[in-house]
Amino acid sequence: MADAAASHGLIGERRARSLAGARRRSLVVRGLRFVLLAAMAAVAVNAGVQLVLNGLSAQPEAAFTPAGSNERIVNPRFTGRDQSGAPFTLTADAATRRSGGVAGLAELENPALDYAFIEADDSSRVLSRIGVFDEGEQTLQLRQEVRLATRSGYTFETEAALLRLREGRMEGDAPVSGTAPWGAVRARSFQVREEGGRIILSGDVRTRIYMDDPQEPQP
């Protein structure tokens, strides 16, 4: 009887130790799960914070593009209308848009214009060697060997001129020379308004009126 009681007590003690060990392991597993969940939550929060910070820092960088990566278009074509509804078509051998530059600004090679008061024959279609077209302002800045001819019979040669296509006029502050239906002209600046119907010459204006063969004015 004593041996049986001792054996029963030993078994009970082993069970108690086994249950205690199982409880400790369960507590450890629960603790590990809690730590793992907390770590996963921390990682998720950190990832979210990094995404927000990266998004905020990327916003100003989106407008920055390396200066060397320019967009070049061969045989570009721009169309529009002036304030009176007259259409115009601007073409060129090539157009370059500079990254990081002013939006809507294109540098043109050998620009040509088909417009109401610009003579459109083949000899005068190319206006200059270089042009800068502002699509927003509808202006065309011409430089180097500028040659302009109006449908009213005037021709101009200069080194710089500005065409305001929206208003239907052009102007130049560089010395200009050319011909008119009645003779030849030379001045320091000029303006062509009212779609070629009004010509204004300014600064040391010199003219030569001829009856037969046109001649350039003498300095």
What would you say this structure looks like, in words?
- This protein has one helix and 15 strands, in the order αβββββββββββββββ.
- By secondary structure, the chain is α+β, with helices and mostly antiparallel strands.
- The chain has two domains: 1-64; 71-209, Lipopolysaccharide (LPS) transport protein A like domain (lipopolysaccharide transport protein A fold, Sandwich).
- Strands 1, 4, 5, 7, 8, 9, 10, 11, 12, 13, 14 and 15 form a twelve-stranded antiparallel beta sheet that branches. Strands 2-3-6 form a three-stranded antiparallel beta sheet, with no helix packed on it.
Q: Brief overview, please?
A:
The chain has one helix spanning 2-61, and strands at 71-74, 77-81, 87-91, 94-97, 105-109, 112-114, 130-134, 139-149, 155-164, 169-172, 176-180, 183-187, 189-193, 198-202, 206-209. With 219 residues, it is α+β, with helices and mostly antiparallel strands.
